[in-house]
Structure formats: C-alpha cells, structure tokens
Design a protein that fits this description.
GO molecular function, one term: lyase activity
Family: Belongs to the ferrochelatase family.
Radius of gyration: 22 Å
Order of helices and strands: EHHHEHEHEHEHHEHEHHEHH
Subcellular location: Cytoplasm
Binding site for Fe(2+): 209, 290
Strand content: 5-15%
Helix content: 40-55%
Protein name: Ferrochelatase
Distance between the termini: 36 Å
Number of strands: 8
C-alpha cells in the first residue's frame, strides 16, 4: 500500500491544531550499542555530512561507528539523569509547559514533541497528532538559528512523512526565531537569574554549536544569525563588546569550521586575565551532551588549566518560565489565522460544512 491507513473519521469533531516541537535527538541509553544506533542515523543524514555517500559510508561504518560509540557512551553516562537523557527530559518538559499555557488560555492546541534522530520520531508524532484530530500542524524546530544542517533536516523528515499520507494536514513551520523579542527576553532572564544567584562574572562567552565554514560561503545564514543573537542579547543585558564574546564548539573532522573555536577562546580569555568566566549556550534550547559535558565539564577544565579561577556554566533555557512564554508567543504568531480557541472551532466546522454543501449543490447543477 502506497499510503498509510487514515485514522477513523469522527463526524462532528471539530478539527484541532497541533504543535510539534522537534529537537535534534539523543541515544536511548548511555551505552555503546545505543550510541551507535543514534550516530548511524545522525551521521548518515546528507544534511549533516555533505560528503558523497560512496566516500563517506566506508569511513562512517568502517571507522567512526567502530571507535566513537564507546567514547561517546562514557560521556553520555557522565550527564545521564534518573529520568533519562537531559535533552529528552527537558524537551518533554517544554512540550508539557507549552500545553499547560495553551490550556490555561483556552486554546485548542495539542502539543507533542519529537526527535529528528532517535525516539520519539517525527513520523510517529505526526501520526499521533492526526489521530487526535489535528488538521493543522505547526512544526517548531527547536533551533533558534536556522541552518541547513538542522532546521532543514527536520523539514526533510516532515516532507518524507507527507509522502506517505493520503489526507494531508495543513503544515506550517517556524524557520528561525534567533531575533524574536520573546526569545531574547528569555535568554536575558536566564542570565540575570544566574547573576542574581552566583554574582556577575568578568566576562560572558556565548558558545554556539559549530558547522563547517563552507556552509557560510554556500549561503547558510547560521553564522550571521548567531552574531545577531549575540548583539541583541548584549543590548538587552547592557553589556559592552569587551564584556561579551562569541565562539563555536563541537568541531568534527579536519575541515575548517566556523571560528573562533570555543576551546582556544577559553584558553585565550584566561591568559588575558579573565578570572571569573560565565559561559552560556543560546543556540541550544535544552541542556544536552554539548552543554553539560563539552562545556560544563571539559570547558571548565580547559579554562581553569589555562589560569582562570572560576568557571560558571549558565544552564540553557530548559523549562524556564520566560522561555515557555516565548514559545507560546512564537506559536501564536505562526498560527495566526487558524482557529485556536474553543469557541472558534464550532464556527470553523460550521463554515466548512457550508462550503462542502455549496460544492455538492454546484456539482448537481
């Protein structure tokens, strides 16, 4: 069968609006086999690795997937929580928080979450939204700054799911929110909360996930959007150029990636005399391996070894109330024109029934 079976139609049920939050993904467990499955899916995505498959697959399966899973599993184990992977935990909390706000506002939204790589999959959650009567779905990639390596890959997977459907829901998606005022407000609130508890450091470093430099020259807007986020956050916090800087982390392979790199930046700041450094990762909506292990553990060691005296990792937005409110603002803006409130749904259903009746009459004539 070319198309998946449709969920049973319920006459008289008003169509709902679904919201799908999509994050990058995580292994199911901090073990080598689980990490291998995750990396195999992640690193097989041509959006992530733009090397011809004939050249890349022997390297991936012959070297990387034999060596890297055990090392990565040990790192995941160092940050794993009783609830599971931090990324999975925080993404669940974000979806639940957004659902609570929607319910409190009387908005007929169904909020679910998915992972681009791993579980729950995008396809399974889109199926679930359809089964719950959602004929309008807003897809929210949880990447504030757009990149072909992240946001575009989410939409590739959404489009693959659409090819399996007979009755397609109306789909919208959020391309980016790097300069959304509510997002900048949420970042500022997170930093100020940390300052209130721990004091203000000598310098604030914003570390974003890195991508190959060639993507910038090929037209990817990620680099520019990271810099805009830095500028807007600096303005909101009242920081001067010498009080806040930007770097890119998580290099992979030998190709040149976006600069400046985070590790050399940590060393340079310590040698320049910064004693109390605070590092924040605005490009990550939720704490994960890259923030909790690469920054909070490895980055701390790099800075202190280079002569720094105090290192603070400022948590990601996670389920901070200002961030959940920002998500609500983003969703409302992108759902403009869709009936969201309960009292609007019967009227929308009535208008659709009238339209169908008019079409039937026209056909008889």
């Amino acid at each position: 069968m070319r198309y998946a079976p449709e969920p049973e139609h319920r006459h008289g049920r008003a169509a709902r609006t679904g919201v799908l939050l999509v994050n990058l993904g995580t292994p199911d467990a901090p073990t080598a086999p689980a990490v291998r499955r995750y990396l195999a899916q992640f690193l097989s995505d041509p959006r992530v690795v733009e090397i011809p498959a004939a050249l890349w697959k022997p390297i991936l399966h012959g070297i990387i997937l034999r060596v890297r899973p055990a090392k990565s599993a040990a790192k995941y184990a160092s940050i794993w929580t009783p609830e599971g992977s931090p990324l999975a935990v925080w993404t669940r909390h974000q979806a639940a928080g957004l659902q609570r706000l929607a319910d409190a506002a009387g908005e007929a939204l169904t909020v679910r979450h998915a992972m681009r790589y791993g579980q729950p999959s995008i396809a399974s959650e889109l199926d679930a939204l359809k089964a719950e009567g959602c004929e309008r779905i807003l897809v929210v990639p949880m990447y504030p700054q757009y990149s072909g390596t992240t946001t575009a890959s989410v939409m590739d997977d959404v489009h693959r799911w659409q090819l399996t459907q007979r009755a397609l829901p109306e789909i919208r998606w959020v391309r980016q929110h790097h300069d959304e005022p509510a997002y900048i407000d949420a970042l500022a609130a997170r930093v100020r909360d940390h300052w209130a508890r721990e004091g203000r450091g000598d310098h604030l470093l914003l570390s974003f996930h890195g991508v190959p430099e060639r993507t910038l020259h090929l037209g990817d807007p990620y680099h520019c959007q990271c810099h805009k986020t830095r500028r807007l956050l600096a303005e909101r916090l009242g920081l001067t150029a010498d009080q806040i800087s930007l770097s890119f982390q998580s290099r992979f392979g030998k190709a040149k990636w976006l600069e400046p790199y985070t590790e050399p930046t940590l060393q340079a700041l310590a040698k320049k005399g910064v004693r109390h450094l605070q590092v924040f990762c605005p490009g990550f909506a939720a704490d994960c391996l890259e923030t909790l292990e690469e920054i909070a553990i490895e980055g701390r060691q790099v800075f202190l070894t280079a002569g720094g005296q105090r290192f603070d990792h400022i948590p990601c937005l996670n389920d901070h109330p200002a961030w959940i409110a920002a998500l609500q603002a983003v969703v409302r803006r992108h759902c403009a024109g869709w009936p969201l409130h309960a009292e609007e749904l019967p009227r929308a259903a009535e208008l659709e029934a009238q339209r169908q009746q008019a079409l039937a009459l026209g056909a008889k004539r």
